[in-house]
Amino acid sequence: MVSLHQKFSNKNFKFKGNLSSSGSGSISEKLLYVYSAKDSIVTRMEGWLYKLSKSENIKKRWFKLINRDFIYYKKESNNFCKGIHIICNTFLKENSIRSDLNKPMFSFSLIYSDKERIYYCEDKDEYLNWIKAINSITGYVDILDKYEIGNILGKGKYGEVKACIQKENGREAAIKIINKIKLKSHELHVIRSEIEILKICTHPHIIKLYDILENQDYIYIIMELCKGGDLFDYLKARKFKISEKVAANIIHQISTAIYYLHSYGIVHRDLKPENIIMDFDPDKNDPEFPTAKILDFGLSKMLGPGQKFVAYLGTIGYSPPEIILKKPSDYSVDLWSLGVITFLMLAGYLPFNSKNKNEVENLVLNKKLIYDKETWSKFTKEGNNFVHELLNKDSKYRIDIRQVLEHNWFKNFINKNNDIIEQRENSKYQSEKSGFRFYSLPNLDMFNKDFSKFNCDASKFGSNEDLDTKEKKEVSLTNEKKKEVVRLTSNKLISLIKISTIKSEAYIEHTLENEIVNNINKSDKNIN
């Protein structure tokens, strides 16, 4: 491994001490970057700029745009670097001309998550060249150059959704436009959590993520366009009367998606008909067996082996007893929600229903579920048993997702020419076959900052938030449950993720240079 300090020294660049992220001459205890020996030094542009210091003074410095960093010197001829400004993960903003100085200055800013750096340039042509060079690094793109934006499809809590067409290939899509300025910090966390999970997931029954664009004011999430409305609208249009075969087909699709999520250590925590989208065009056809896809991962969480969470969240009527009682919960919360959805699809009404929230909670906790003979005698005994097994109020005895997919109910209705077990396994490895590419590495720091500890850290979502940390305990990793531990450095996935439990296995593979991995192995203590 060659440090940035060493590499610039090799290239006749010298640093006065280690580099400082503040851009001042202060000495930092750690180098900001570690590059591999194969990295090349590329000077994209250099010239005089004026920067606004912390004391609000404007200082003239010689700037060099090298690789993805803004390095500056006191004088053009100096070999000693005065400081460095990081450009990665910033947004460029073009400011109005500042005329209150000795002469007019062209200005631009680099917007960070917590601050803004302002620069000034005397010459307009040079200013435009700086803008062009920095944009090439930040990945700037005008959204209207890539997409043709259409009509509004709907509005939600965090923004509006519009139809769009990708100009490059003519593909129809849906674009969710989120105004970051209007969001509170915990709401922005919800959005980013959903994005990171969508980056991981590629499954035929999970909504597809096509692209993500972001600037200092907005986040644009481009996803596949499904025109059939959500599952609730689908049922409502049919007066909540569909055949058991259709219900089994839709529930089986959702179940394969849940299996996929649980295999990757992801629990959805808010499964309901409104979060299941139907993929068909009602203006063109009304298929007997429509395609269903899960969406809205804002409340989802990634769990480590044996980990549980304590949280009062989800949607009333679809949340299990353990959520209402604020007890440690796991993947089984999704199975309860699946049972409620199945009950609604077959019976046409919710098993625990009231306009009063407290009454619904009381029914979930205390009412013995009664299956009306007139309604449920129309369905097979396997269908009755399927719902009964899912709506077990004791999560320890609730069937898991493997048992769901192996249930005889599906064997009665799903195409018998297809092996259900094979479908289940194929769904698990769908991402390997799809050719999906990451737009950026999934930031697993959004879920748990240090997977080696497997803490149930609280993640706040407004009134829905993880609760008393006194009930949360670290889960020790036994040799039976652990194969490898995720390691994170600088919020980037730097080595093989291979989490395995007795009930599920998760594989997310990323290959990086052996030098980086070896360096981490040396610096990290053996977690065992």
Secondary-structure map:
Layout: E1 2-3, H1 4-10, E2 14-15, E3 34-35, E4 43-52, E5 58-66, E6 69-73, E7 80-81, E8 83-86, E9 91-94, E10 106-111, E11 116-121, H2 124-138, H3 143-146, E12 147-155, E13 159-166, E14 172-179, H4 185-200, E15 209-214, E16 218-224, H5 231-237, H6 244-263, E17 266-267, E18 276-279, E19 291-294, E20 301-302, H7 321-324, H8 332-347, H9 357-366, H10 373-376, H11 381-390, H12 401-405, H13 408-413, H14 420-428, H15 430-434, E21 460-461, E22 464-465, E23 488-489, E24 492-493, E25 497-500, E26 505-508, H16 514-523
Parallel strand pairs: 2-7
Antiparallel strand pairs: 1-3, 4-5, 4-11, 5-6, 6-8, 9-10, 10-11, 12-13, 13-14, 14-16, 15-16, 17-20, 18-19, 21-22, 23-24, 25-26
Helix pairs in contact: 6-8, 6-14, 8-11
How would you explain this protein's 3D organization?
The protein is α+β, with helices and mostly antiparallel strands and 528 residues long. The protein has 3 domains: 2-138, PH-domain like (Roll), CATH 2.30.29.30; 143-224, 2-Layer Sandwich (Phosphorylase Kinase, domain 1); 231-434, Transferase(Phosphotransferase), domain 1 (Orthogonal Bundle), CATH 1.10.510.10. It is 28% helix and 22% strand. It contains 16 helices and 26 strands. The strands form 9 sheets. A 7-stranded antiparallel β-sheet has the order 8-6-5-4-11-10-9. Strands 12-13-14-16-15 form a 5-stranded antiparallel β-sheet. Helix 6 runs antiparallel to helix 8, helix 6 packs across helix 14 (420-428) and helix 8 runs antiparallel to helix 11 (381-390). The longest helix is centred in the middle third of the chain and has 20 residues, at 244-263. It is elongated and about 90 Å long.
